[in-house]
């Protein structure tokens, strides 16, 4: 019998209930997957709490996992029983020991890549693919500011930017996180609790400003992020951990011909071809070592409540892995 974490009402971690479920045979275009690892993300917390009402209740949360193909449905080619796969989905359902999965979401795992890194970091890595590819093409020599540079996405984003030849400035909260940011590709770090990051960026760039800002913090940093951009700079806001951003006047952007993006990963994954390309690129970077995600902390699937409690109490940068 399979098990899944089912949410029947919104609330705290206590609403994550482990239940027995029946997983039938795959239909046309489907695979039956036995999960080997499941990622835990703040998106899951927002779904659980009701902040995001994007999961029909009762429902099974979870956006990413790795697994082994147990059965192949009709009209599916390219997969066979025993294949190792990874996936990211906005259709949820990953918090389970087994599931039926649309075959167009399954991406073969490269040889030599373990289950833990993709299961707990593929969504982050694909976010990095989105940020440095279709959202904003990075060229060698660009200067880039990354907020929360030691966070889960932040550290991999800094790695990717450094690999692309950019000069990376990272804001962090502590000296310990500054060391993490430098180890992951930051040329300069700014302790934002001790320094005004706008002045620090002006000093580092000799008053020119940066070409790109990646801001996942939102309300607390947005105004300063705009101020740090040079002429024709691009601000990418991809989160708002400190709260929503007030409306922006077009004249604010026009003052230096600035551009502003607010990308949502799942919008970029609607095209199956782009989804597969981004996932395959991320997995290959795991395989080659060009992206080095944090080692995840394993938690049994049945203890998903504890995993959410750990996640909400984390200072940032780590990863959690549910193990069926």
From TrEMBL:
The keyword Chloroplast is assigned to this record: no
Assigned GO CC terms: cytosol
Gene3D superfamilies for the chain: Medium-chain alcohol dehydrogenases, catalytic domain, NAD(P)-binding Rossmann-like Domain
GO-annotated molecular function: mRNA 3'-UTR AU-rich region binding; NADPH binding; quinone reductase (NADPH) activity; zinc ion binding
The organism's place on the tree of life at top rank: Bacteria
SUPFAM superfamilies found in the cross-reference section: GroES-like (SSF50129), NAD(P)-binding Rossmann-fold domains (SSF51735)
Matches recorded under CDD domains: QOR2
PANTHER family from the UniProt entry: QUINONE OXIDOREDUCTASE PIG3-RELATED (PTHR48106), QUINONE OXIDOREDUCTASE-RELATED (PTHR48106:SF13)
Name recorded for this polypeptide: NADPH2:quinone reductase
Organism: Paracoccus seriniphilus
């Amino acid at each position: 019998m399979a098990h899944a974490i089912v949410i029947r009402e919104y609330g705290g971690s206590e609403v994550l209930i482990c239940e027995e479920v029946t997983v039938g045979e795959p239909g046309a275009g489907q695979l039956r997957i036995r999960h080997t690892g499941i990622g835990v993300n703040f998106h899951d917390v927002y779904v659980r709490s009701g902040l995001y009402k994007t999961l029909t209740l009762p429902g099974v949360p979870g956006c990413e996992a790795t697994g082994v193909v147990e059965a192949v449905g009709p009209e599916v080619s390219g997969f066979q029983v025993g294949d190792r796969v990874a996936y990211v989905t906005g259709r949820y359902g990953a918090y389970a020991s087994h599931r039926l999965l649309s075959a167009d979401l399954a991406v073969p795992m490269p040889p030599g890549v373990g289950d833990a890194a993709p299961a707990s970091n593929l969504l982050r890595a694909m976010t990095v693919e989105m940020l440095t590819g279709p959202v904003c093409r990075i060229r060698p020599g660009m200067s880039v500011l990354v907020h929360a540079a030691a966070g889960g996405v932040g550290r991999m984003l800094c790695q990717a930017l450094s690999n692309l030849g950019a000069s990376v400035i990272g804001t962090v909260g502590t000296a310990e996180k500054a060391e993490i940011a430098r180890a992951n590709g930051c040329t300069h770090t700014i302790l934002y609790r001790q320094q005004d990051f706008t002045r620090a960026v002006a000093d580092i760039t000799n008053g020119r400003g940066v070409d790109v800002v990646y801001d996942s913090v939102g309300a607390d940093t947005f105004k300063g992020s705009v101020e740090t951009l040079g002429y024709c700079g691009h601000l990418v806001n991809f989160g708002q951990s400190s709260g929503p951003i007030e409306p922006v006047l077009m004249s604010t952007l026009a003052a230096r011909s600035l551009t502003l993006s607010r990308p949502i990963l799942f919008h970029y994954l609607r095209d199956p071809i782009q989804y597969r390309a981004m996932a395959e690129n991320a997995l290959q970077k795991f395989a080659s070592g060009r992206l080095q995600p944090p080692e995840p902390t394993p938690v049994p699937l049945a203890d998903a409540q504890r995993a959410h409690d750990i996640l909400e109490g984390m200072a940032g940068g780590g990863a959690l892995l549910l193990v069926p």
